[in-house]
Amino acid sequence: MTRVKRGTTANKSRKNTLAQTKGYRFGRSTKEKQAFEAIVHAGSHAFAHRRDKKGDYRRLWNVKINAGVRALENAAIPSYSKLMGALKKKNIDLNRKMLAELAEFHPEVFAKVMEEAAAK
Predict the structure, then answer these.
(1) DSSP annotation of 75
(2) pTM of the predicted structure, to 2 decimals
(3) What's the CATH number for 7-118?
(4) Digits of tens for pLDDT over the chain (120 positions)?
(5) What DSSP character marks residue 91?
(6) DSSP label at 3?
(7) Is the CB of residue 83 less than 8 Å from the CB of residue 118?
(8) Contacts of 18 (CB under 8 A, 6+ apart)
């Protein structure tokens, strides 16, 4: 039976691991064991934070909508929560992302949406 040398597979694995940790500090970029540990942790954080990002954007949209409502100083709808309740009662199906866009870049259209929500 012929002799098989297995260095190439190990070297390829090591090279790929260290390539993924390029830019990391201290032993995490040069030592195989620490680099692998860093990759595992980075992956778990990336997974969790992709989920967190969605909540972060929703909170940002809420702030923008509330700022838009307060800027118009409509007595019937003084705040974000009152606006959302009024929109739900009137069956106006605009999501928060679109409302935030309107409040920030098209305040005149946002004002019309608020008037429609405030109408009895």
Answers:
(1) S
(2) 0.76
(3) 1.10.1900.20
(4) 888 888 898 899 999 999 999 999 999 999 999 999 999 999 999 999 999 999 999 999 999 999 999 999 877 899 999 999 999 999 999 999 999 999 999 999 999 999 999 987
(5) T
(6) -
(7) no
(8) 29, 30, 32, 35
- The single-letter DSSP state of residue 22 is T
Residue 61 identity = W
Position 37 scores a pLDDT of 97
The residues spanned by each domain of the chain are 7-118
Q: Do 73 and 109 meet the contact criterion of CB atoms below 8 Å apart?
A: no
Query: Which residues, including other chains, have CB under 8 Å from residue 74's CB and lie 6 or more apart?
Result: 114, 115, 118
User: What b/e readout covers 97-112, taking b as 16+ CB neighbours within 10 angstroms?
Assistant: eebbbbbeeeeeebbe
Which of these, 91, 28, 107, 40, lies nearest to 99 by C-alpha position?
A: 107
The residue assigned the tokens 């954007």 is 57
